[in-house]
Structure formats: structure tokens, C-alpha cells
Input
Amino acid sequence: MARFVMIMDTRRCIGCHSCTVACKVNNELPVDMIYNPVFTHGPNGVFPHVSMTYYPLICMHCENPPCVGCCPSGASQQEADGIVWVDQNTCIGCKACIQACPYRARHENPKTGTVQKCDFCKERVREGLEPFCVETCHQRARIFGDLDDPESEVSQMVNSMHTLQLLPEIGTDPQVYYIVTPGGQG
Amino acid sequence: MSSKEDLKREASAVRKSCCFFCHQNCGVLAYVKDGKVLAIEGDPEHPVSRGGLCTRGNIALQHLNHPARINVPLKRVGARGSGQWERVSWDQALDEIAARLVSLKEEYGAETVATAGGTQRANDWARRRFMNLFGSPNGFHNAHLCWIPTFMIETAIYGWCPFEIDLANSRLIVLWGHNPGASGMPEMRGIFDLKQNGLKVIVIDPRYTESASKADLWLPLRPGSDVALALAWLNVIIWEGLYDQTFIENCCIGFEELAEHVRQYTPEWAAPLTWLDPELIRKGARMYAANKPGNIQWGVSIDQSGRSAGAGIHARALLRAVTGNLDAPGSDLLCGPSPDFITDEEMEANEWLPEEQKAKQIGSDRYKLTTWPGYGRIAAITKEVWGKAPTAEWMCEAHPPSVFRAILTEKPYPVKALIVLATNPINSYGRTDLVLEALRKVDFLVTMEYWMTPTAMLSDYIFPAASPLERPTITTTYGCSDTLIASERAIQPMFERRTDYELWRGLGLRMGQEEMWPWENLEEANYYRIYPLGYDDVGSYDEFVEKHRFHFPEREYYKYGRVGFATPSRRIELVSSTLRELGYPAMPTYAAPVENEIDDPDLARKFPLVLTSGSGFMPFHHSEHFQIKELRFLKHEPYVDINPETAKDLGISMGDWVWIETRRGRIKQKANLTQAVHPKVVVTQRGWWYPEREAAEPELGGCTESNTNVLTDVSDEACDPLGGSWANRGLLCRVYRVEQSEADGR
Output
């Protein structure tokens, strides 16, 4: 069985937001709904002794997703391959999952009244394609793949490099891994 | 709702098109059916972009189908700038315009017709071809601000511009006033790939940019002081003995003279000019000289420095020569023009422009290097050595501010008509008040555009331009590379949009130029250009795209051993005979920024901060894309970078609207408090106008409100004597809060 994960290589991210726009136009999201913002951390320090790092964010597709258990309608669900998604036909728009998500990865669509989120472009990845945000990235700062496949780039990276997860202490076990080096230097 | 994957399955063909929202022309696969584009994605097989698309590349369909696009030819019916238009046919518009141009030519001479472009966003050999056959030497772009002075100075001293960098074999790259992290996505990827193998990166930039954040060494110099830094690097490399003696002996002349000349330019001399510690200057110079082979990638900043641009470009160019970082594996390569396909220059029909018309080119009496006097001399030498010349469009143009002044003053002669294509001069050219006044005054103004830009608003006719996906594109680095990448149209143009080729050809056909325009469309012209490549399996341009896509000749290092350097002496001229012949210093000599605190302390008391402007930032390109909400949400308003310490002194908080003022005017942008800049430096964003505002006088899309070109200096005293660059960088300014009452008014 596959376990889809994403690696964010902050050594290579330059904060261009191509991923943000690719996601938006290809998934036809409303202008104010952003599945994958990029945060600029810095410049930190005092000129000219400064550093800066860009952090691409996205749904963490947690191993233990708090947004699934809290869903009263069963719309919010986790697939066997790890992908967490919301069935738009059964979502009742109660927004419990928005409250539950510690990563602010869920968004209410005011037109439909339902909650939407990144689903790792599941239709595409199951056909062997990459998510839009990965495909568009000139810098290969986002790497997607199957952690259960020992030959995959992601499993080799996760198993051989120092990576970080966001908020590891709350037990969600996010499946988005960050490669971060001190001072943002590659 | 069909998903993108469903749309791709539904398509009847996949076309190998490209993006056209900057000059990288990243590969785009277009999924088409029945003349419509259903979906696009990055082309993973494209040799440069390898599947990547930036923010702009992603919005090709939003651009193609945008409701605000101009789709039919328009003719002004009310007063100029009143926003009243009638729809006319292409034939009617072309007939009327051709008749008007002919009558102006009869009354004032062909030179009374000028044409303005922006960056490389059209098939400009066709523009040049038309202008040459018509008889006017007065075409121009923002060439003088972007690469062209660099190209011409480097060609003068070593016979071609070494813009092909052999990064894969390099140990170090200098990004000098260049931020590929915001403007050159494929290039940045290459740098990241090679950093993992140990490539070192030096960034020279007043601002802590995306690229600087990934660099091994950052030199945050005073804006506009690049010439002092380059001269000091020459001093260090020569007088610390870090130069390449063998290369200099075999390939260069004038080394002793240059060594003596730069002796005065010590790091200690440069320190107060550049605001850099002398040891930091030494460290950078030693790093470049010691990590061979290395590259100095071209960056736009020096080209935009105005008065000191030529000297700065010249000094930077000599760094490659004295270190031997030219045409060797891993260095900057002198590839020369393509011997294999027909170049832009060969399509331009330059031989048709009479000598007496060349002599009338506006600005050629003063800015000789980038006009007919310098270009003519240099092109003659490159033809002797390479067999071909650089593109005349771009490299040999009228001086834009001088043309705008000629419109107003009728000196040296009246300029009565301006054809604007692929540019919005009100936001892209220096001194907005001058440009605005000229465009309001010029007798006849024709524009070809995607959008109702402030310039289009003032036009007499507007032609609808074909979108990136509606045109075939050949990519050859302004016609000067020996490589070629070919892309095809995804679809025929929608509505009545056409390519610029059809505009120039349409005018030409109405002026008796039939024999000179044998190609009915761009595919036919492009096929003519690639035919000499000799592919037997190809019977059309599109077939070349489908089967081959690109032409990359085998890399040949040390080509100069076979062909020689294209200079009068056939050597690299560290003391340039060509520049001397044109009346310029044969070696780079320090020139101060147009406005600076050392030469004019009184001015610096009134305007205590140093302004730099003009650098690229995501997601916009020059003055484009403000209409597209899928991009605009990222940066809804213009921002000026200012150091928090300075902002505190001025009572400015994050996000406040502030005035940025120079001697020439003031604009409003929002304050971005950041440690990325020196406390005395502010960085404005370029290009801003507001398409959501009124598209008529007096508002003209808010084109002056946040437009950094209000602040720039285009006076002859501010311009570089060699290449005509006007001053965008290193100007003195002051910044203060927009008062609430003023802010409410906007």
C-alpha cells in the first residue's frame, strides 16, 4: 500500500508562490481560498546580518488527523494511502474540522457552505501524476511520493536526511516533512 | 465541473507552445480541441523549464479568456483620452494608418515616424524590417536600460557578449544586481542543483533578495555604486597577482596600461562610495578570482544606473578577461551568432535603410555605442570575424527620452507619429511626466495591446494582440544566441486578435513593400529561418516543433582559437580601440551616481535616502498582469522596502501609505518595514498602475500615482554617454507618511 507524503525543501524554496497559483487555477478555487500559502520567515536579524527562509504550507495529511474523528457526517475522511479529504456531497458545513485542524488547512467555501481542503490532487496522483503544486515548482522545492516505496525519492530523503514535522508534540504525525538548515542557507 | 484531467483526455491534440510573459519562454503543453485551449501545463520535456511554470505561466488561460482583453481593432471617436471608441475592421484601420504615415513622411520625412517597444515580447525583426523599408531609423525599446549597453560594450572589447554561462562546469557564480529567485526561475533551479555539488554563489545587491538569502557571500552595496566595486575588484585581482597570466599573454592586449589605470581604485578608495568594508570588497574579489572557472551572470542593475552605467559595465566585463573566465569550460562563453539558422539581423533588411536616414537616428550624436555610429562599426567587425552581426533592433536604436523630447520640442526635427507595441511607455519609460506630455501631444498614436493600458487609452487606434498561446515563438536571446528553441501556436487567435507580424506586414503591403513580405504568416517566416538547419524530415515550422523543438549545436570551447576575437586587433582589448575611436574612455573610469551624498551634500540633506527601483518581483512582469485576480491577490498594492529603524524615525508603521519623493516628483506606495535594506536605502516596486480605475483622462488608470518612473531622471546629464541608460538606481529621495486626509481621497 502506498503512503503519500510531501517534502518541503526550504533550502530550495524562493517564495515565488507558483505553487499557490497553480493550485488555485487548476483546482478552480475562489480567489480568497488558498490551500498552500508560502510564508516568508525573515529577514531575521539586523541589516546586514540577516537570514530568511520560505516555508511552503499545505494540509499535513496527518497520520492521526484530528479533523476526521470530529466530523459528524463522515465527509471528512482518510484514505488507506494517507490522503485526507472532504466529500463535498456529504459535508454539512458544521466547520468542526476547521476548529480541530491545528494547521489551518481547512477552508469554508461561502458559496457552497461546505469545507474544502487540499487532497494532494488525489485524482492525479492515483494516475501516477504529481500534485499541481509539485509539478509547477521550477525549484523542486516540493517533492511528492510514496513513503512506503523504498526506492522513492521521498523515502530516501526522509530516511537519510534530517527532517522536521510541524507541531510534532501534539501527536498528529504530519506527513509533510521539512528540510530546514540553520539560517536558511542551502 | 470537469477536472483538469478530464479536460486533458477530452483534447484532440497537444500543442508544444510556450509562455510569453517574460523572455524565458518556458515550455507549455496546450491541450486543444475545436480551436479552444482546454488545459495547459508545464512541458516536462522543455530543455530549459523542464516542466516548471511560475505564477504567470500558470495563468495563461485566465489571460487568454480574460473579459477585459481587447479583441477587435478600435478607433478613437471622442477627444484623445476620452475613452470613446468605435469598432473598425483590420483593413479599415490599416488603410487609414498607412495613408496617414505616408502623408506624414511626405511632409516631414520618414524619420518623423517612431515606434516604441518594451522588452522582448514581439517578433521585432518584423518591426525593424518595416521601419527600414519605410525609411525611419527611430525605433526604440527599453533596450538602453536592459542588457543592450552590456552587450555592446562587451562586444566592443571581446567580440561578442558572453551571455551563455557554462554553469554545469563552474565553481562559482556572481549574481551582480541579478535576482533569479524572482526573475529567472529555470536559472535559479540550475544554481540550486549545482550548489549541492559545491557551487559558490556571490550576490551583489543593495537588497537582501530571494537569491541573496541562498548566497555564500552577500555584498550589500550602495545603489548605483557598482562601478566603484567593479574597479576595486580589478584593483585587487591585478595588484594581488590573482589574474590569469597565460590567458592575458595569449589573448589580451593592454594589460600593463590597465594595471596602472586601476592602481588608484583600491578597496579603501571604494569603501566610502560603496558603503562596503574594504575587507569585504577584497573577500569578494579573491573569491571570484580563486574559484575558477567562474561566471559573472548578467544583471540589469548596472544597465539602469544612468551616468555611471557604461563605466560599470566596462569594469565588470574586464573582470572576466583578467581572470581568464572567458570561453573556457565552466566560464562565460563567447558563442557568437548562429551560423546555422537565419538570425533576426538577417531578417531585418538593415541594408535597405539609406545612410542619410541612419544619420538622422535620434540620440546618435550623443549616445554613439547603441546607435548607428557604434553599432555600424561593431557590426562591421563581427561580420568580418563571425560572418554575422548582432540584431540591430535593440542594439542600435533611437534614444527614447530624446524621442519623447523631440515630440515636444520638434528638435532635432518633428516626430509626429508613434507606433507602440508590446509596451506601456507611461509606466515603463523614465520620467512619466515627459512621456505623458509627449503621448498627449504626438499627432498620431497607434498601439497594439492585450489590455486598455494607460498608453492605449491615449491612442488613436488600438490593435488587439494575439496571446502567448495564439502565436508561434522562436527563442534566440534577442536574436544573438547560437541556440534556438521553437514553440508553436496552441490555437489560431480568437476574435480579431493577430500577431504583430501581421500588423507590420499589413502596413508594408499598403506601402508597396509586397516583394519584401513573401511570408503570409509567422509560421512561413519561421520555416524560412530554420530551413538552413537542414532537417530532412521537416516540411513546415510546426513539424520542426513537433519533431525537434530545439537546435543546440555542440558546445565548442575556446572558439576564439579558430575564429579570433571580433575586435580590431583580434584580441581582447583591455584598452579598447573601438571605444576610443567613438570618443569614449578606452578604459573604465569612475563616474559617480547621478545624485549622491558626497558630491551634493546639500541635496542629500533635503533628500537623505537613496532610492533604487526597477527590479523584478513576483508575480508581475514590468507593468503587466495587474488585471489578473489570480495573481493580484498575492500583491494587491505596491510596497516600498524601508528599514524599520528609518521608518521609526519617520513615524511610519508597517502598511502605511507613504510618499516617496525625488526632485522630480512623488508617488505613493505602502511601507514594507524590512531588515533587507540599509537604513538609508529604500526600494520601490516598478510598473504599478490600477486597471480597476477609470480608463480615460484624467485618471488614466491611476498611472502616475504609484509609478516609480515619476522619480527617475532622463536628462542628458543623467544619462550614460556610451549607451544612453537613464537613471533608475541610486537616486536621492525622501519618504514621509501620506496624511490621513490624503489617504481618504484615494
About this structure: Chain A touches chain B through 42 residues (CB under 8 Å).
